[in-house]
Design goal:
mainly alpha, three-stranded antiparallel beta sheet, Four Helix Bundle (Hemerythrin (Met), subunit A), homodimer, DNA-binding
Chain lengths: 217, 217
DNA sequence: TGGTGGAATACTGTATACGATTTTAGTATA
DNA sequence: TATACTAAAATCGTATACAGTATTCCACCA
């Protein structure tokens, strides 16, 4: 099946990536004309893209004053990770009631892709999307799509701040180990153990980020 | 301060109300031309409004096929109330650490407005927004704006399904009592008690709705 | 010098217009 | 009758154009 791409959706992807990667810095006003010219499109799809990004929390609108890439405080980062911990543990509980062997094997495959990233020279920026892919694969069997939608947004936002400090290799490899352990607990259908590990996994990642972040802020 | 209203924001409000009130039924295709003509605006603000409503979960877009008012299943309703229970209890915990007497007095005033609604002849449709106002007033001191944003969305969606059955007067008055009790526990800064009550408050409301909903679905 | 008013500028918000895609209806064919 | 194809209509997506609002800059005055 071919997926018809609208201009708007392309613009969303481009701008999202630019904001997450800090090519567009937090606080930068996003001029519709400038973006439209740069991307060779009209302002309409740019506006619509900005609206979607506002819903994702990456951009803020002020009437007649335009959009600005959101600034985020240390408090907010910790709030985001706190929310992730709560929602992801909850959804994991439901998922473990229904997860199949095939589901677990898919998760396993994603983890193997992950291992590639730890090798030197790998594109470390792929980490965020792969991380989301892995987590999602464990939550998907829950069938709770509203929750998944919220978690997806939270990941997007967390990603953005994870990329502030690219030298978190140590954290990456620790996260990797935790992923393997988490998957093992899922195979064992150990709901309590898996939830507990997931909670600390998310919260320690968050704390690591905040530590790296504090000196800057 | 005067708030400059854009056409788009007005359209958002109108359509949101129409969807929540079921004047626009779930599953209805939302034709941009028809809406634009009806509201005497061009299609641009209509499109932008629909995009925002999509972010709120009231509408679904399919490329080149337009927007449809989302249909929701019983499972999803219960998911929504489950999410509310988790997130609102969490945020209430943080709020109680910081809530002031003034905050509590504001909540008290809202509850008094509430009492008016139980009198016969009152506009029962105001229930949803007032309910949100009350809950929000208790959560606001937490300062967790991301969480509040998510909860706000959940309330909007729950409201929509609360209005399916308008004859929930019995539930309304029970909810009223629970609100008073909740506020009392907040005055006492009884975090554990307040969280526990809030959880059952939300979940029983959800279950009541689902009971009234089941025969239809 | 510091502050106020107002025109010029820049930018956003919305309408209109056009091109692309999907849906519908009708016709031909097996 | 059922299916496949085609043309027309309906609808969406995007470009262009215009209108309205915010910002900037400079002249003027205390």
């Amino acid at each position: 099946m071919i997926t018809r791409k609208t201009v708007t959706s392309s613009v969303v992807e481009i701008l999202r990536e630019k904001i997450i990667s800090h090519e567009i810095e937090a606080g930068t006003p996003l001029r519709q004309n400038a973006l439209a010219d740069e991307l060779n499109v009209s302002r309409i799809p740019v506006r619509e893209a900005l609206l979607q990004l506002e819903a994702e929390g990456l951009v803020e609108f002020a009437p007649h004053r335009g959009a600005v890439a959101t600034k985020i405080s240390v408090d907010e980062v910790s709030e985001l990770f706190g929310l992730r911990a709560i929602l992801e543990c909850d959804v994991l509980g439901y998922a473990l009631d229904r997860i199949t062997e095939e589901d677990l094997e898919i998760a396993q495959l994603i983890l193997e892709e992950f291992d590639e990233l730890l090798k030197p020279g790998a594109d470390r920026y792929a980490w965020g999307s792969l991380n989301w892919k892995f987590h999602r694969s464990l939550y998907l069997p829950s069938g709770r799509k509203r929750t998944l939608g919220l978690i997806r947004q939270l990941h997007t936002n967390c990603d953005r701040y994870l990329r502030i400090q690219i030298q978190l290799v140590a954290d990456f490899s620790r996260a990797e180990e935790e992923h393997h352990e988490l998957l093992r607990l899922c195979w064992a259908r150990d709901k309590r153990g898996a939830k507990k590990l997931l909670k600390t996994h998310i919260l320690t990642t968050g704390r690591g980020l905040i530590r790296a972040f504090k000196p800057v802020a």
